[in-house]
Amino acid sequence: MNRKQLINKREWDEVESDSHRALSKEEMDALRKAKPRNFASLNGWWVVLGQVAITLLIAGACFVFSSLADKSVYTYSALVGGLIGFLPSALFLMRIEAAKKSIKSSPGGFLAAVVSGEFIKILATIVLFIGFALKQPDLKWIPLLVTYLATLKCYLLAWFWK
After folding, report:
1. Predicted TM-score of the model (pTM)
2. What's CA 100's distance to the chain center, in Å?
């Protein structure tokens, strides 16, 4: 190694003593007062409401811009895609809300609620996709998948709104 690389390696390896320091309660309270927006939590029901709004917006666009013969099929397919997107999210939130109201609330219990809620969400999504595919063979998959993916992007938008 030449001298410049050795100096850069030493600078890289040096760890600031302040970078991993735990804050005291007073320091944390001061930080919360200085930057309250960084510590604000987002209500999950607003995300579900956003998913419903996106679903209705895309279904309305499908209704307006599709041909007269396919108007109902495209609109229905978009509504189904949105339902597959926001119904499992609502089920997940109901599971989390039930865990918050539980008498035996502990960190382990809440983690179990999150894991079981996520399992319910995945299972509901799979069941809805398979159920609608088998029971409604005339669905148009492009508007269904576009609406489903748009509802999933509401999670990303929630982080930007925060």
Report:
1. 0.75
2. 19
